[in-house]
Amino acid sequence: MAGKPTYEELEQRVKELEKEAVGRKRVYEALRDSEAQKKAILDASIDRIRLVDKDMKIIWANKTSTMEDNIAPEDLYGKICYEFFADRDNPCVGCPTKKSLGTGNIEHSVMHQTKAKGITVETYWDNYCVPIKNESDDIVHLIQIMRNITEQRRAEEKEKEHHRNIELLSKTAMKFVEFPADKNIYNFIGEQLREFIGKDSYIVINTIDEEKSILTTRAVLGIGKFTDKIVKLLGRHPVGMTLDANDENLSELSDGKLHLNKEGLYVIFLKTVPKAVCNSLEKLLNIKKIYGIGFTKDNELFGTIVIILKEGAGELKNKQIVEAFLKQASIAVQKRQAEEALQESEEKYRGLFDESIAAVYLFDEKKNFLDSNQAGLDLLGYSREELLSMSIPDVDADPIVVLPAHEQLLSGDRIINYEHKLKRKDGKVITVLNNSRPLTNDDEQVVGMQSTLIDITERKRAEETIKQANEELLRAHNQRKILSKRLIDLLEKDRRQIAMELHDHIGQILASLKIDLELIHGQLKRADPKLGDQIKGAQEKAVHAIKDVKSISQGLRPGMIDALGLASSLRELFNEVARNTDTKVNFFSRRVPKRFDPEKELAVFRIAQEALTNIIKHARAKNVFVNLVKKTRHFH
């Protein structure tokens, strides 16, 4: 604090006083040695030095004794010291002269004077009295030595007060650190403030919600007997009041310094309470001065304190200490607000934690259970007390299998959708889907794990049932494929056989019939023209029958595949379609071997044949494009 003496300065002052004490001794010796020398020395002294008789009448005084009175020292002679200087009828309280008259010894005292001759303020005096004795050891005179130590005393008192405040700040700092979470920190701040500035004050403490721009009154101290009247004026208790914090008057408080408010409670209430009400409150509370200061962090305002002094309270004392204390309080309020926010977050988390249908567990770095929600207890079948005395290996159905996953977590990585088995309290083994993450401290060190588990035992059973059913279906499908292939093979065999029968047997008979009819027609057309015409009709029918047999034979088994191969057979098929219909088929083939697996040749031919039939029958397209390309082992 500015103007306060340091320890070194005080030590220097002590040395000076010691020197001055030596000087006083020399003065005493000089008084005995030389009257002239005595007077010169005593007049030069900064101390008030007087010689009095046993009735305390002044016999002699140095010039310093009358400095404030503007009179000559001789004007004091014959006057009683306490009457002249203190305007008293008897010696001052603690008077060392009176003590010396009783003890016969040198006496010392520090005296407090509320008034003195020529001095209008209260003063402190460092007084010595030295008795002068005759040869019979009787006191004949006394020397009074007085020094005005008011400034020194005030400096000492300020220093003591400073130390007391520093000690108080230190204690409050510790109290803030250890302040219980269930106590009202705002009331505590107000009480401590009144310790610093005095009880003739009112303290109002507010917090500011920056997101909502709302100022909320948290504590009001000192109103005592006025509470009911204040409630009546405001229409409610001031604690809990909320005001719109969008006010320019708040901005000046963000520097963390005390500011004198000269506009009264109307501004303190951010102009939201009627002026008439504010004036009534000021009169009721006998308000003299109002100071404001902010709770700040990085020049951001998150709260305010209003210090209201009553009439007669004097000036606000210890401003620097108050500002220092409120910096401590700002930190404590930040901590409390952070704790409240954390508590609110934890309550929300706890609600989600407890109400989650998934099992959620917390573990320490040694894999011990730290917490579990109800779903987690139900999953494993243990009570909370039982589970919190266990560790992960106690419930793992196969601890060796899950070790790599644990190592992954403890190294700082997550595990996602990890399936493993757990053993319930009843011995039943279940399958779970595990999603876990590591828990770290501020130094990014892994201190535990959080796991979210879903029981997928029934799902796994259903999957196994589906898998078995699919395998059965696959086997049945494969069997049907085999049977279908056999059926197709038999059908193709029958088709081949029937086609051969039609081509080789019936076709030959029809061809022979056609030849016979041609011979008969040649012999009868002249002899019997009418019969010749009938024979010619029969001959045409035989030709149609031969064509039909050939077409049926080709449909049952295109013999040209065996003779020409797939590509040539398809080209012949497309040409025949073009001849018999209005559809033109554009065919392109590439890398198709002349012959390959007969079954595949026939399958490709049948596909093309069926597709063309559908196009002609349903789409009635005029142009059809067919590409047959072999890539690696497949046709496209």
Structure in words:
The chain has 636 residues and is of the alpha+beta class. Helices cover 50% and strands 22% of the residues. The chain has 18 helices and 19 strands. The strands form four sheets. Strands 8-7-6-11-10-9 form a six-stranded antiparallel β-sheet. A five-stranded antiparallel β-sheet has the order 2-1-5-4-3, sandwiched between helices. It has a five-stranded antiparallel β-sheet with strand order 13-12-16-15-14, sandwiched between helices. The two termini are 98 Å apart.
SSE layout and pairings?
Elements: H1 7-33, H2 35-44, E1 48-52, E2 58-61, H3 81-86, H4 96-103, E3 107-113, E4 123-133, E5 139-148, H5 150-177, H6 185-197, E6 201-209, E7 214-221, H7 227-234, E8 242-244, E9 259-261, H8 265-268, H9 275-285, E10 287-297, E11 300-310, H10 319-355, E12 359-364, E13 369-372, H11 374-380, H12 384-387, H13 399-410, E14 415-423, E15 429-440, E16 446-455, H14 457-527, H15 529-556, H16 559-564, H17 566-580, E17 584-590, H18 598-619, E18 623-631, E19 634-635
Parallel strand pairs: 17-18
Antiparallel strand pairs: 1-2, 1-5, 3-4, 4-5, 6-7, 6-11, 7-8, 9-10, 10-11, 12-13, 12-16, 14-15, 15-16, 18-19
Helix pairs in contact: 1-2, 5-10, 6-10, 14-15, 17-18
